[in-house]
């Protein structure tokens, strides 16, 4: 635990409870690491009752105050410490809510394969997620052995246009090319997270980080260049180097919800242009004096990048409005239930 967390310790709780870190979550229970071992833990009824949204439940990477029982073989979670950073997205499908992916992550390794998975637009969504949560992104381009050095260099430069501030590294799990550079990024006491679609080589990379074949994998399928192992849940583990890594399942959807800061950071050049628009509330669609549209006309701004930015802005606004409407309905329903219970109590 670093100084940021030590400064935020609750003296009253720290004196009576132990600190542990959440390694995995399963509905109303979780697995916590006490520093010496992992034990199953349950949330108190008070925590479950007081939870106002999914953000109030423990997430992989959280530091929590726990009460250890039965010779430290079981724990009860009483409270979550403040989160320094977080990785969150809109829940998949039609439901509009936050889904926490991981908490207190320092660096997000965004893995994308140099093949059919190569998709700069999807990469931008991961970058928005990381930037929104205060997590530093590093882009890892896997399966470089499938392409010539010239092709790898060209794709790296293409990615650089979408992630100018992020470190970008190409590597191959098969030949080992670039792996030493990737592993060299891992520092003791720092928390990393693996993000990316299924089949891009995250599990094989994880095994290389662990220094052992901890997770079974099979060869890449020729027809779609995908591996055959799929991570089934998020899990936090300590690496031999002393670094902490959170592995995550592949994501089919990376939707944004309240990601204004993440969009501004990821699309910084568009944000800087927007600040020079004639109108402060410019929508960058039809207005005269729009610096963003002018940049499109003189081709200093990519059309694809602009379109992806506008799409995410619309999605975020729609999801945020739907989320607040849902929360308002939930609060109204909760108030109605409390009123009914009060009236029943008076009659009895």
Please give the radius of gyration in angstroms: 23 Å
Average pLDDT score: 83
Sheet with most strands: strand arrangement? 10-9-8-11-13-12
Uncertain ranges = 215-229
Distance between the termini: 52 Å
Topology order in helix (H) and strand (E) letters: HHEEEHEEEEEHEHEHEHEEHHHH
Q: What proportion of the residues is helical, as a percent range?
A: 25-40%
Task: Give the strand tally.
Answer: 13
Overall shape:
globular
Q: Count the helices. How many? A: 11
Largest sheet: 6 strands, mixed
Strand content: 15-25%
Give me the secondary-structure category. alpha/beta
At a glance:
With 348 residues, this protein is α/β, with parallel strands linked by helices. It is built from 11 helices and 13 strands.
Plain-language structure description:
The protein has helices at 3-6, 11-16, 45-50, 120-132, 149-160, 179-183, 202-210, 260-266, 268-274, 291-297, 303-347; strands at 18-26, 29-33, 38-43, 63-69, 74-80, 86-90, 98-103, 107-113, 136-142, 167-170, 191-195, 235-238, 244-247. It is 35% helix and 22% strand. It is of the alpha/beta class. Helix 4 (120-132) links the parallel strand 8 (107-113) and strand 9 (136-142). The protein has 11 helices and 13 strands. The model is unreliable at 215-229 (pLDDT under 50). The strands form 3 sheets. A 6-stranded mixed sheet has the order 10-9-8-11-13-12, with helices on both faces. It has a 5-stranded mixed β-barrel with strand order 1-2-3-5-4. A two-stranded antiparallel sheet has the order 6-7.
């Amino acid at each position: 635990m670093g100084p940021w967390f030590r400064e935020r310790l609750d003296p009253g709780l720290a004196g009576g409870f132990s600190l542990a870190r959440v390694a995995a979550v399963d509905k109303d229970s979780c697995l916590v690491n006490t520093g010496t071992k992992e034990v199953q833990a349950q949330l108190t009824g008070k925590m479950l009752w007081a939870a106002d949204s999914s953000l109030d439940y423990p997430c992989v990477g959280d530091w929590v105050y726990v009460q250890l029982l039965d010779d430290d073989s079981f724990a009860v979670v009483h409270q979550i410490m403040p989160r320094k950073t977080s990785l969150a997205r809109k829940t998949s499908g039609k439901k509009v809510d936050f889904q926490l992916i991981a908490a207190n992550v320092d660096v997000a390794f965004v893995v994308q394969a140099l093949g059919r998975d190569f998709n700069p637009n999807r990469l931008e969504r991961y970058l928005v997620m990381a930037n929104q949560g205060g997590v530093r992104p590093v882009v890892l381009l896997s399966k470089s052995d499938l392409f010539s050095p010239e092709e790898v260099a060209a794709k790296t430069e293409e990615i650089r246009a979408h992630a100018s501030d992020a470190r970008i590294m190409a590597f191959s799990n098969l030949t080992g090319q670039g792996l030493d550079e990737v592993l060299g990024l891992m520092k003791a006491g720092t928390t990393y997270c693996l993000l990316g679609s299924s089949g891009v080589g995250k599990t094989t990379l994880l095994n290389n980080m662990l220094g052992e074949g901890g997770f079974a994998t099979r060869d890449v399928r020729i027809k779609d260049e995908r591996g055959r192992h799929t991570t089934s849940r998020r899990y936090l583990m300590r690496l031999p180097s002393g670094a902490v890594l959170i592995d995550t399942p592949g994501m089919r959807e990376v939707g944004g919800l309240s990601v204004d800061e993440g969009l501004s950071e990821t699309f910084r050049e568009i944000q800087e242009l927007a600040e020079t628009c004639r109108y402060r509330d410019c929508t960058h669609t039809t207005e005269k004096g729009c610096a963003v549209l002018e940049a499109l006309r003189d081709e200093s701004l990519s059309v694809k990048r602009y379109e992806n930015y506008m799409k995410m802005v619309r999605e975020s606004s729609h999801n945020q409005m739907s989320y607040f409407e849902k929360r308002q309905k939930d609060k109204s329903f909760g108030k109605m239930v409390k009123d009914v219970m009060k009236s029943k109590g008076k009659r009895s």
